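JOB MANIFEST
job_type = single_chain_structure
chain_count = 1
residues = 142
[input]
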Amino acid sequence: MILNEDNYFEIINSYDKKHWKTLLYLIPEIEATDKFGEMAGGEKDDNGIIQMPYYIESPVVRRFQKYVGELGILISFDWPKWDDGRKIARNKEFNFDSIDIPTKCKLITAIIRNDRYCEGSLIAAFDSGLILKILKSINKQL
């Protein structure tokens, strides 16, 4: 389920901690994961044809995407034009506790949507600790 920009705030704020448990249970696994993905391809096959490089996501990244979709926290909005979100995501010192959970969901949405156009950006968000910071902040605010 993808939420609409007109009512996402109320819907997300109505979710209790139990609703979030599958996603929040990933926190220890994310903390214990050393490698969130790797690039594959780019080699020539037996016919001399080069396979385009692509990313292979770790199981925890794939489960994260699955759970986010199932929980109804993705929001339909114009994420490429959301400059505040871009600034938040790039600021390594940003205090995620200073924003509400629906805004964190907008960040998650933008990161996942961006990965469709810039393959590997979701893995990079895990590698940088951004996803972990968002999830820990959601857990703390609940």
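[summary]
The beta strands are 2-4, 37-40, 54-57, 74-76.
The longest strand covers residues 37-40.
exit_status = 0
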